[in-house]
Amino acid sequence: MTSSGEAFSPAKLTAAHRTFPFGTMVRVTNIGNGRTVIVRINDRGPFGKGRSIDVTPAAARELRFSGLTAVTLEVVNPALGR
Fold it and tell me: To bridge 74 with a disulfide, which of 3, 4, 27, 79 should be the other Cys (CB 3.0-4.6 Å)?
């Protein structure tokens, strides 16, 4: 289960962030290759130093990385009423 109460699915384009409200849509861009994906925040974390977002395996595939990589974040649709 995620912090939002939703079941975790590695196949969905979702992510964990420490402060963005649940439901916020965020464009994540892989700085190394320019690939982007839009994810929905549904969990809290990551709590490791220097990490800003934790994406699902499906999102990581879209961004074409595994492990850790440098990214930029842009809120594209703030959560409404959450």
Answer: 27
